[in-house]
Amino acid sequence: PICCIRLPDHLLDEPLPQASPLALHDALGQCEQAERLMGPRTDDIADRVRRELVLHDDGYPTLEAVAERLAMSTRTLRRRLQGQGLGFMGLLQAARRRDALSLLARPALEVAQIAQLLGYADPANFTRAFRQWTGFTPSAWRATRQKG
Questions:
Q1: Theoretical Cys-Cys bridge with 140: which of 5, 15, 70, 136, CB 3.0 to 4.6 Å?
Q2: Which of 80, 75, 126, 71 is closest to 104 using CA atoms?
Q3: Of the candidates 121, 115, 117, 111, which has an alpha carbon nearest to the alpha carbon of residue 141?
């Protein structure tokens, strides 16, 4: 849905009757102060995507959902990630790895449950990916963590 107000062009050149230079000065000062309090702004698109890649009950957000949350097209998101030498799937795999390690630390969850939570259709695919990330199977990694 889009909302808009249409005005004749000539109205854009007319001064606002309620305009106040003092109010403008105060507003600009408040904006500058708020900007200083927020600290430096980061335009690191990879960090912004990482913050969006959070595991929910229905899995991870898609590329389309992340692009929408960041107010850009999927094409722009891909291009900006490529500009940093990254891809969405690589960031998604990193999020899965992070969450796999966290979930495996919970002994009540079986490896098959963790695989399903992380979006793997087959636990064998999760095991293969986990072995590539860590050099261990999920069960072996869990066993080494429980020992020490």
A1: 136
A2: 126
A3: 111
Q: 141, exposed or middle or buried, with CB in 10 Å at 0-12, 13-18, 19+?
A: buried
What is the model's pTM?
0.69
Evaluate whether 114 touches 75 at the Cβ level (below 8 Å).
no
Domains and CATH numbers, the chain: 45-147 (1.10.10.60)
pLDDT in tens, the chain (148 residues): 678 888 888 887 888 788 887 887 788 788 888 777 766 555 799 999 999 999 988 889 999 999 999 999 999 999 999 999 999 999 999 999 999 999 999 999 999 999 999 999 999 999 999 999 999 999 999 999 887 6
